[in-house]
Amino acid sequence: MTHYSVWSLIKGGLTGQKNWTRAWRDPEPKSSYDVIIIGGGGHGLATAHYLAKLHGVTNVAVLEKGWLGGGNVGRNTTIVRSNYLLDANAHFYEHSLKLWEGLSDDLNYNVMFSQRAVINLAHSKPQLDGFARRGNAMLLNGIDAELLDRDGVQAMVPYFDYSESARFPIYGGLMQRRGGSARHDAVAWGYARSADARGVDLIQNCEVTGFRIEDGRVLGVETTRGFIGAQKVGMAVAGHTSHVAAMAGLNRLPIESHKLQAMVSEGLKPLINQVYTFGAGHFYISQSDKGGLVYGGDLDGYNSYAQRGNYPLIEHVHAAGMALMPSLGRLRLTRHWAGVMDMSMDGSPIIGMTPIEGLYLNAGWCYGGFKATPASGWCFAHTIAQNRPHALNEAFTLNRFETGAQIDERGAGPIPGAH
Ligand SMILES: Cc1cc2nc3c(=O)[nH]c(=O)nc-3n(C[C@H](O)[C@H](O)[C@H](O)COP(=O)(O)OP(=O)(O)OC[C@H]3O[C@@H](n4cnc5c(N)ncnc54)[C@H](O)[C@@H]3O)c2cc1C
Prior knowledge:
Blueprint: H1 6-14, E1 32-38, H2 42-55, E2 60-63, E3 79-80, H3 87-101, H4 103-107, E4 118-122, H5 125-140, E5 146-149, H6 150-156, E6 172-176, E7 180-181, H7 184-197, E8 201-203, E9 208-214, E10 217-223, E11 226-235, H8 241-247, E12 255-267, E13 275-278, E14 283-287, E15 292-303, H9 311-324, E16 333-344, E17 350-353, E18 359-363, H10 369-386, H11 400-403
Parallel strand pairs: 1-2, 1-11, 2-8, 4-13, 11-18
Antiparallel strand pairs: 3-7, 4-6, 5-6, 9-10, 10-11, 12-15, 12-16, 13-14, 14-15, 17-18
Helix pairs in contact: 2-7, 2-10, 3-10
The protein binds flavin-adenine dinucleotide.
Flavin-adenine dinucleotide is lined by residues 38-44, 63-66, 70-73, 75-79, 207-208, 236-240, 244, 260-262, 296, 339, 365, 367-371.
């Protein structure tokens, strides 16, 4: 495999670009593997990478029904942060942020991780107090946080509506400087390339259609390319979790699938240098390196597996956006799409064991699973290889919904659309 470096670029330039090899192989599935991961999104591919790299488990296949990176990992707005209040989330997402900080080197692939700061805007004094509390909790957990007043926000981005008569006046914000964004599909491709180089088989156009389970133990999966045996099977299918888990008899997972849409404007000169979230209107915005404003808002509000956008949400998101930044209304929308979110009942993920021996579950990412990709793969690989969770994911069990140990960051209750 070509090692990507400035030297390989120069060599390619001098030799007619003949030095590049395929980023990953296209193998036929073997009859069985030690581990099968279902889902070639960010989490499945990261799991394969860490299984091979950290645990020496290389007889692994990732089965993807479409193409690698065609799901949410290639459809999200790429906000990366670890600004959580509750300990379980704070430690997990901070581990993820630390992995992000070294990811391009680890994968030898430029994931364009840009620590441009994430700022949550406050629209009332009580909300600013709440942010101060969360910021203090973050600092106590060793995570960077800064509280900004209105002038502090305005100095960074002058284009918002700072008037007293704004629909939601801006009182300040909570900033995490180490937060930012990354290039979504590069994350999938980087993990894929690294896993493949370590011997993992990445098998595209291979949909899992059933499980073979005997005496409470998984023996393998039925697929559109035949039966494939496995000692262990990990599910990392995000928005399709309920559907795939039901094939294994796990019929009542605490997850609902909802659509979330993203939008990109025409390209502009640098305008918004940080990532902003506007909770009062439910709108968030950043600017890509190509210049387009990248933004989104609410879920569609009904359950769906459709990966397409629609006009009512375009109107809804722009109404929210223009309440914050009126000049947005003068831009052209150039691209628009949707992804399918696995919304859990407390807004936190599930990474762990299932009642079926050898079957593991990675799900419940709601609309924040992109930033979790490195830690999710890291913890899921540990759980599968060691057959027990790591301390970082031991709270994210499936049975917390039975025992009442929910991790409800927003205190919104069991209403998935509210997380
Ligand atoms: C519009 C939008 C904006 C978002 N913004 C952010 C953000 O700013 N920050 C953030 O952290 N998160 C964000 N997210 C959430 C994030 O994208 C997801 O939580 C995360 O990508 C989910 O994990 P994944 O990458 O593994 O999922 P996916 O990429 O969806 O991977 C799952 C894979 O499983 C495959 N699959 C499904 N069923 C089967 C089957 N039967 N057999 C084989 N394969 C199967 C699918 O084809 C898919 O490729 C956003 C999501 C959307 C849609």
